[in-house]
Amino acid sequence: MLWDLVVIGAGPAGAATALGALAVEPGLSVLVLDRQDFPRDKACGDGIAPQVFDLLAEVGVTGLVDDRTPVRRLSLRRGELGVDRLMARPAWVVPRAVFDHRLVEAAQAAGAVLRKQRVRGIDVRASSVLVGGGDEVEGRVVVGADGAHSEVRRALGLKAGPTALALRGYAPTPPDRAAQQVIVFGMARQPSYAWSFDRGDGWSNVGYGEQLRAGRQPTRAELLAQLEVLLPGASVGGENWRGHQLPLSGWSWRPQRGRVMLVGDAAGLINPMTGEGIYYAVATGLLAGRAAARAVRRGDPGLEYRRSAAKLLGQHFRHTTLAARLTRSGRVLDAGIKASADDHRVFDNLVEIGLADGVLHSASLRQVAKQLMGRGTP
Ligand SMILES: Cc1cc2nc3c(=O)[nH]c(=O)nc-3n(C[C@H](O)[C@H](O)[C@H](O)COP(=O)(O)OP(=O)(O)OC[C@H]3O[C@@H](n4cnc5c(N)ncnc54)[C@H](O)[C@@H]3O)c2cc1C
Fold first, then answer.
1. Which of 114, 283, 284, 293 is most buried when burial is the number of CB atoms within 10 A of its CB?
2. Contact in structure between 261 and 273 (CB atoms under 8 Å)
3. Which of 48, 278, 355 to mutate to test the pocket of ligand 1 (most atoms within 8 A of CB)?
4. Is the pTM of this model over 0.90?
């Protein structure tokens, strides 16, 4: 059978791709392949920005986390410095075994077919794409949503960009970290931070991650040790430890043209400041799915995807790259924390940049510069 759209990977990016396509063209034949059975776990901090649900509502998916408790408080710390504020909008902390399963069920309810299959290679032909591994599958358009170690990206001959490594576990929530998301930045190499995100059910997602330097891959023991250095006691009673790579976004990004598109982690779209990637996975999935549905019989869905993604995320990626470069300096990071403590507008701006598609406001930059020059509140 020739499918209109074959999506490889059923995480947030893949499920969103199917949803985006079927919202435009409900009659489309959409096959989603994943090497794992759902529900499945995925190493993640489980922090989900409210903007993710705004995007999903656009394709009629609502109520996914109605039974979960949102988190309003965010605490950012480094050494002796800290800011602790309510976020303008609440975020959610939902285990991926739950969130991803619900999302892929929504895609199935919209008409997508989910099949367990590990994909090995693709063959791009004149008017279709052959997907290898297991049963041979053919699609008019193929979307690679297969995560950090994307087989589709590799088959296209594209290299992975800068990468971080992080380890997460689940540990009982102590009273002093309840009802909040806590991030403690490292004192030495940047970007690096430990986190504790309260799930609201007595457990927290805790972990530590850092950007990888050439030739050096920290061990699991080292990652756990750093978590304990920055958030003492965070790993006590912890279980289900799982590590994974985070492909970070950069200054420029060129989603593919033609019949094969990459979305989410497969496209290397994790925020280099915060390690957040679910928003970009869902945003690019929806855009690629819509582009596929509109152009499926006309050749180049990648062109529309490229234009719409550049419009939504181009400036944002340039600003996050700039912010990530600046905050490699501990002094700038400290100035950002102080400015956020002084003025909630700076805090809100940094949250928008860190979690979704925000851009740096010049007023925020001025406040940070003021702190750097020692003219802020002591
Ligand atoms: C420790 C850690 C903490 C993080 N914390 C956060 C956070 O708090 N908030 C946030 O927003 N982001 C966070 N991220 C990033 C986030 O997890 C990713 O950005 C997100 O999972 C990307 O979704 P995706 O659908 O692109 O990929 P994935 O969720 O990785 O899904 C890819 C899917 O493809 C399937 N697959 C892979 N290869 C094949 C193949 N060959 N054939 C078939 N199927 C295949 C996999 O089984 C998987 O289901 C974190 C990442 C890590 C590692």
1. 284
2. no
3. 278
4. yes
48: amino acid identity, one letter: I
Residue 238 CB neighbours (<10 A): 18
- Grouping H, G, I as helix, E, B as strand and the rest as coil, residue 61 is coil
Q: What is the pLDDT of residues 67-88, one digit of tens each?
A: 999 999 999 999 999 999 999 9
Q: Which residue has the tokens 């002094």?
A: 331
Distance 161 CA to ligand 1 centre (A): 16
| 8 pocket-lining for ligand 1 (C-beta < 6 Å) | yes
Tokens of 53: 């649900």
Encoded tokens for 204: 């927290």
Instruction: Choose among 330, 308, 334, 325: nearest CA to 360.
Output: 325
Integer Cα distance of 189 and 194 in angstroms = 13
Q: How many residues does the chain have?
A: 378
The finding on whether 248 has its CB within 6 A of some atom of ligand 1 is no
Ligand 1 atom closest to the Cα of residue 242 is: 1
CB 210 within 8 A of CB 180: no
Query: For residue range 275-309, what is the model confidence (pLDDT) as tens digits?
Result: 999 999 999 999 999 999 998 767 678 888 999 99
Secondary structure of residue 119 in the 3-state scheme: coil
Question: If DSSP codes are grouped into helix, strand and coil, which group holds residue 216?
Answer: strand
List pLDDT tens digits, range 172-201.
999 999 999 999 999 987 789 999 999 999
Atom 41 in ligand 1: which residue has the minimum CA distance?
A: 119
Domains belonging to the chain, first-starting first, are 2-43+96-158+249-321 (3.50.50.60), 329-372 (no CATH)
User: Does the beta carbon of 306 sit less than 6 angstroms from any atom of ligand 1?
Assistant: no
Mutate to test the pocket of ligand 1, among 41, 92, 246 (most ligand atoms within 8 A of CB): 246
Residue with the two structure tokens 């995100």: 197
How many angstroms does the Cα of residue 114 sit away from the middle of ligand 1?
17
